[in-house]
Specification:
The protein is built from 5 helices and 6 strands; from the N terminus they run H-H-H-E-E-E-E-E-E-H-H. By secondary structure, the chain is of the alpha+beta class. The strands form 2 sheets. The chain has a 4-stranded mixed beta sheet with strand order 1-5-4-2, with no helix packed on it. The chain has a two-stranded antiparallel sheet with strand order 3-6. Helix 1 packs across helix 2. The protein starts with a helix and ends with a helix.
Length: about 240
Amino acid sequence: KATVLSLRDALLYAELPAEQRTAERNRWIQAWLGGDDDDNNDHHHHRDWQYVYLTEPDSLLTIRPAALPALQDEVDRGTVLLPHRFQPVPHESDLRGMNPERRVFLGHQEFPTVMELENGPGHHDACCDERQGKHFRPGMPPFFEYCGRSKFWYNCGFYPKNRNAPGKHDRMKAYSMIRIKGGSEITTIGGSEHARRCIPKKNAVCRPTDVYDNPEIRSYEAKQREWVERAAAKAQKTDT
């Protein structure tokens, strides 16, 4: 989060007229994007950057090609876009021939359905946020207790001490199991790694989040002005 916000501030500073860039703002721009010396071929110019995608080396980004123009429009408005991160889980359908007695995957008996979502041409399947708010997470407290310090909620039933416990995977039964075709095609939880749930649908379009369809929320332009003012105030505070 700090990296994304700091990078956004640098991009906003770079959009300011030269006379509005303080020494601290220029240092911030150069640290994140490069300087403004066109003759220095060893470093990037801050205008070299139009879009930046931050990821982790073990993450795959899957985007429906038809959605790219809309995503570009959002980014061009100054919006920071965060991809929805699905969490893979071991399921019997992906481990054919594995001895079920080892109890290291979700079995067909408890999780009989894995819904396949297509993302190719002619398909518009989706897993839509259920819009219950950021604190509604059916796999975590208050619905289920934590299974241990620094333990991921979806792994609780796989820890050795819980492998023979009754209802060890009950916390995951509130979620649909899905398989996105065209990517890794392994079973994932219909929700995020932080237990926020989405509802898979065939040939569907997700409603916008409350940020976009609530009339009380300010416009993109107002938000962008606020970002510039906030970045400028932070830089001024640093200078003084």
